[in-house]
Structures are given as C-alpha cells and as structure tokens.
Amino acid sequence: MFLKNFIDGVLVPPYSGVHLDNVNPATGKIYSYIPDSDEHDVQLAVEAAEKAFPTWSKMSIDERSRVLMRIADLIESKLEELALAETIDSGKAISTSRTVDIPRAQANFRFFANAITQFGSESYHAAGEAINYTLRQPLGVVGCISPWNLPLYLFTWKIAPALAAGNCVVAKPSELTPMTAFLLSQICIEAGLPAGVLNIVHGLGGKAGQAIVEHSRIKAISFTGGTVTGRKIAQVAAPMFKKLSLELGGKNPNLIFADCNFEEAIATTIRSSFANNGQICLCGSRVYVQVPIYERFRDELIKRTNALKTGNPLEEQHDLGALVSKGHLEKVQGYLELAKAEGGTILCGGERLNIGGENAEGYFLSPAIIEGLSNEARCNQEEIFGPVITITPFDTEAEAIELANGTGYGLASTVWTQDISRANRVAEQLQAGIVWINCWMLRDLRTPFGGVKNSGVGREGGFEALRFFTEAKNVCVKYG
Length: 480
Ligand code: TXE
Known about the structure:
Layout: E1 5-7, E2 10-12, E3 19-24, E4 29-35, H1 39-58, H2 61-77, H3 79-90, H4 94-115, E5 123-126, E6 130-138, E7 141-145, H5 151-164, E8 168-172, H6 179-191, E9 198-200, H7 205-214, E10 220-224, H8 227-237, E11 243-247, E12 252-256, H9 262-274, E13 284-290, H10 291-306, H11 326-341, E14 345-348, E15 352-353, E16 364-365, E17 368-371, H12 378-381, E18 388-394, H13 397-405, E19 409-410, E20 412-416, H14 420-429, E21 434-437, E22 452-453, E23 456-457, H15 462-468, E24 470-478
C-alpha cells in the first residue's frame, strides 16, 4: 500500500515520486510505503493553507467547532480500524491502542471543539479614562510535527487546538508511524473539513520536517520529539521569530516514600515504567524508594515485571509489544550494555525476545530493571525511552528531592506518600512541569502540559494551547 500526502483537500503522491519503506516492528517486514516528501510538497501545502485561511479563520466558532466534532465522531466510530492500524504501525499492544491512543485522539478533537467556544480574553478598565481589551487572533499557517510513540494521540493533540483557534495547518507525523495520520486525512475528507485547512505531508524529519520549520510563511512550530531534534528546530526557528512550543524528552523520577500505599504505588509503578514499552515521555524511568521499604518494593517490582507478557501486539493478552524500530531497539540495548559497564546490575529482563512464527524478526525486548547505578551514570541521566528503569534507595526527603532534580530534564514526576504536607512540600520543590501525587497519567485536558529544563519550552493543553496558537493584540480605547 502506498500512502499519500493530504494537500488542498486531496490525497496526492509526493512531488519527488519517491517512497520510503514502512516497517511493521512486530514482524520486521515492510508492509507499506510512505511519501518521501521535500520542500516542494511543503510549499504546495503552505499555499493551500494560505488559500484556506481567510475563510476558515472567519468562520463562526460554532461552525468550526461542529466540523471538529464531526472529526471526533468519525475517529470514535472507526476506533477498531484505527487501533489496529496504530498497533501494526508502531508495535504497541492492541489494548493500549484501543484504550489509550485512539480514545484520546477522539477526545483531543472533542475537547478543543468545545474549548474554543469558551475561550475568552482579558480586558482592563481604568475608570473614567480608558478600556483595554485583547483580541486573540489566529496566527495564519502553523506547523505541527509529532513523534512515533503515541502517533495519532500526539498528532491530534497539536492539530486540534491549532484548527480550533482558526489557523490552517501543515503537519508531519513521524516517518516511523505514518498510518493513522494517513487515515486521519481520509476522515477529514469524510467530515467535510474545507480543502487546505489541514495539510499532512509525510516524510523524513531532516527533509520534510526541516522544510516546514524553515518555511518563512509558517508562523509557529509545535513540536514533540527528542531533545536533540528540539534544539535543532529552535536553532532554525528562533532567528525567524516563530512561536515555538517544544515538548521534549524526560527522565522522570518516581519518589516512593515508606508511608505510601504500597499496593497502589507498586501497581502504578509497573504501569508508569512499562506502559507502551516505556515509550511515553511521561514514563517514570528512575524509581527512588525510601530505605525502610526498599527491598520489599524492589522484590515485588521484579516479580510483577517478570509476570508482564511481551508478545504479538495484536493479541489482547500481551502487555508489551515490539519496540518501534530496529534502530530504537539497538539504542535501548546499547543502554543496557552501558548500564553494566557503569557498574549496574540488571535485576531482570533486558533480553531480545524471539516470539517465533511471523514475529520471529520483531523488535521485542523483555522489560528490565537496573540497580546499583549512581545518579550521575548516563543511564540515570539520558532518556532511554524503552522498557528499562533504574531503581535506587534514598533516606531522607531532602535526598529524594536532590536525586529527582539531579538531571537535565524536567518533564514529570510522581510522589508516593500518605502524608499530605510532605506531598505538597515535595511537589513545590520538584523541577518538573507536571507532578502526580499518588497517581500517574491521570490527565485532565484543561491543565497546562509541558516541561522545564531540557524537557522543552511552552505549554500545551487547555487554554494554554489556544493561547499558543493565537496572537494577542491589545486595543486601548480612550473614553471620549
Ligand atoms: O525522534 P525525533 P527520534 C526521544 C527518545 C528517542 C529520541 C529520538 O529518547 O529515542 O527522542 O527519537 C521529526 N526538523 N523521543 O529520532 O527525531 C521526525 O520526523 C524537523 C522523545 O525518533 O525527535 C518526527 O516527526 N522535524 C519523545 C519528529 O521530528 C524533524 C518522542 C520526532 O522525531 C527533524 C519521540 C528536523 N531536523 C522521541 N528531525 C517524547 N518526549 O515524547 C526529525 N524531525
């Protein structure tokens, strides 16, 4: 199957005529081909978006909202088809696609279709003198670039607020997981989204992605992906004074105090470590446990990690599927080797698995726990982004905070304690954009989402996203 770009409301092949292989990570086999787009395709997409902008941006909020709702309804009605496509493309367990990825993609459109109807702006009244009010106007054409770990989920998390705010979009999904973005283009046609409002250009980051970032008429870039890529994008976009939202990597700590609810802490730590094969920027990859419960917690964690089932992602009984690509599998395996060289002990997992049958060549790795590394070890500092966590004991609250904050990243963290004062005290001191107390990934789409330090700049979610995708213009009116 040959996927197509979605430009000016129609599905078209790439300008170059060249296609890239798309591999099913659970089999290691090519199963479709994606457009190898370049600056020509991006140019056509920008022109289509500019042509659509005057009408889309002036359409009533109610009408715009209805179109986005129709897209949400169609995603919902095609849940099974989209979940299957997501799993084949990314290797993730089908239960994850069914219960997390696709429901959330639908929710993203529904949420922003509603949010735009409630989006207001400030006004300041200086009695007897003047009134200031702020207009929030769409930017024009904006670029959205998303990664492979939560393909449709993160793609729509950017596109939905951009469109809701009245912008026209040129978007690029990851070349590793293009399928559901392609299916989304068909859904947009079915939903009656006007031509050119959303344009989807497939292809490589360094080529199609770079062309989006470099395009002088694209006013803002919303990007989720690796920190190294984020830095490259900032280097190009910042001197052009584009608005930038960068949601980058994480090396998130789980702080588990001795007074926690043990069962909840352990069950959630299993999820936060290995959900989606650990390929979620919010996964907790550094687990710190207070000394009195350290051994008990560690042993139980090993037991439950060993009980996780890794296998054919299309079979419902499997908790973990395949890693997204051969390159990524090798990167994660490289970190396991490094962990040993750094003096760590692999307590369980970390083996390349041969599932057999048609999955014999798939990129399967058993979930791993590493103990005995210093906080400065690279495996405790760098984002591994696979089913690999480290576990480390701590004594005091102050030590826990120091360990947690001791990396270049600052995306998310979890705190496990029954002491409400401690929970709030620790939350205040953590260098992170998101702190979960006694839970993980409990998401409310109204909240600000993003990181500090090397985890990025800007916030997504709720009105923050609508503010990002609009320009504030203050109007000052003097009383006559
Ligand atoms: O992502 P990239 P990669 C982390 C994770 C992973 C590492 C590298 O640690 O191992 O990043 O992953 C596009 N201009 N995360 O290389 O390259 C690319 O085509 C414009 C964390 O797969 O960041 C894709 O659409 N675009 C993470 C998107 O950027 C460019 C999610 C992300 O790809 C580009 C994914 C360029 N120069 C990886 N180069 C998270 N935090 O959620 C690439 N792209």
